[in-house]
Amino acid sequence: MPDASPRHYSFDRFRVDTRAREVREVDGPPLPLPAKAFDVLVFLVEQRDRIVTRDELAAAVWSGRVVEENTITQAIAALRRALDTQPGDHRFIVTVPGRGYRFVADVVEGEEAVPATPGGGAAPAGAGRSKRAPVVAITCVLLALIGVLVAWRWTNRPATQAPPDAALAVLPFRTLSSAQRDPLLELGLADTLITRIGDSTSLRVRSLASSERALEPGRDPIDAATRLGARYVIDGTVQQADNRVRVSARLLDTADGNALWSGTFDERADRVFTLQDRLADAMVGALALNARARAGAAKPCDGDDAGAYRAYLAGRHQFERPSGEAMRKALASFRRAIELDPTCARAYAGMAFAHRTLVMTADADPRVHFPLAKAAIDRALALDPNLAEAYASQGFVRFWYDRDWTGSEASLKRAIALNPSLAEAHLAYAHLLSNIGRKAEAGEHARRAVELEPLSPLFNLLGAGMLWEAGFEEEAERAGARVQDVEPDFWLARMLGGAEKAYGGDVEGGIRDLETAAEACDQCSQVLAVLGMVYARADRRADAEALLARMEQRAKDGYLPPTSIAAVRNALGDTDGALDLLEEGLRESDVRMTFLRVDSRWDNLRDLPRFRAVDAAMRFP
């Protein structure tokens, strides 16, 4: 491979950015280059003072693998086509018969390099600052020539009919100058595109969280899309100058690396998120999708107020690593968004997500947080009756808190109908179906959730269990293996692995893993309950009783789910104490009571009259 350190080269009217893996004209979108053709170009530019043999190219670009002679020829031909040269026109890359290739154009090297004067000659000596003139200054001049409102240009091929059920990945946009990087803008542009295209009736759109994980530094967008299992990928860049933003994007087909569409848009910085309707419409048109029509302007908090939308994005970004601290930060950001824009429906939906997640991950009291989640959902749907995220949270609340199985199913089906690519809705529906005994249907929605969130440790871990129960053993094993690849220290995976070790005979190894998991989740009761059960099973009764005492003290000082304490009491043989706590869980709306029928911890209690009464009170279908 060429030198891995990020570099910038300019020649003629072209600029090469090895970090972004792009070649573009100074004022144009990225050229549609196959990944290996780009690597060939960079290697030839780096070795421009000499002739490079075919063997050297094969060793550098194809890692020494045996490649057909035609493979290198095709890469050179792709470069010449992309650089607008005709057959026989060797202005940039000269073929030296019998020896190899040489890059012959004048090159200026450096992050702030500016292309030489068009025509192949170097910039005049009087220009003198070619290595120092900032890209920002050039961009200012370019943007000043554009109208006061908006200008754009694009190129596209005839519309390509996307295959049924094809997948699309939208990668976080990249800022061309590291000194001007704006992470919220990069994420926001992708987020709003995902939201706009997500209501397509024929295309599955990967989540932003998985796309973030796939786009490692220096990763080619085609490689990232392949890792996400996506046929199409949207890759974009951002340039900022003088309170204006230039957004360039391209839609690539991973099958052949060709660009189906590319375009460049310019807008005021405070209006940049409003570009997404036009971008989304262009992508939908290029793929001939049957997307649901969107009436009127952008939905509230989808970009009209840049400050409110940035606050929303700051909250949304906390969802990547859900924890008590992260959800409290998210709530503060959503409140800020609503202060700036009281019609911000998505911020209300985000608040509902944060409240319900606090209950599940941080042992927050459901009697406090679920009513707050309900109020936020009601407000979100009053502002936007078609907001899929709000219906997804409504489905969770009706499932976990209201125990309204029919109502929960209706909400989740509505969310999926509005946005078939909303992974959390599919996962929630899979959970609901699993808990009420509809295992085969649960497996189908778990499969879709994992497909939409292929690099999420949580989705893969939970999905694996439901896939296994539905009989999809191979898919379940693949999902479980992906957790180890993506985040081997994920606390929930560590908890399950620790329990498996302990019950398989490696008690001390299992306990170490469980104690590590407890530390990672801030001593959450979900892990403590398993740890207490393992202590009891390993005849470490004193340790189990000490842990039980700490858990009961936490319950007196604030709130701890009764089911977690009940699990330890049951493991210690206190059947009546466990049943007392399950009855308490029924009264206190403990969310884990919804798992009563599928939770093996209670198998020894199922024939007892008190347990049967609790089960009946849950009103399972």
UniProtKB/TrEMBL annotation:
- Domain (OmpR/PhoB-type) spans 6-105
- Keyword Metal-binding in annotation: no
Look up the domain of life of the source. Answer: Bacteria
Give the keywords, sorted: DNA-binding, Membrane, Transmembrane, Transmembrane helix
Q: What InterPro entries does this protein's entry cite?
A: OmpR/PhoB-type_DNA-bd, Sig_transdc_resp-reg_C-effctor, TPR-like_helical_dom_sf, TPR_rpt, WH-like_DNA-bd_sf
Q: Where are the transmembrane segments?
A: 135-154
| Start-end of DNA-binding region | 6-105
PANTHER family xrefs = BLL7664 PROTEIN, CELL DIVISION CYCLE 16,23,27
Q: What is this protein called?
A: Winged helix-turn-helix domain-containing protein
Q: From what organism does this protein derive?
A: Noviluteimonas lactosilytica
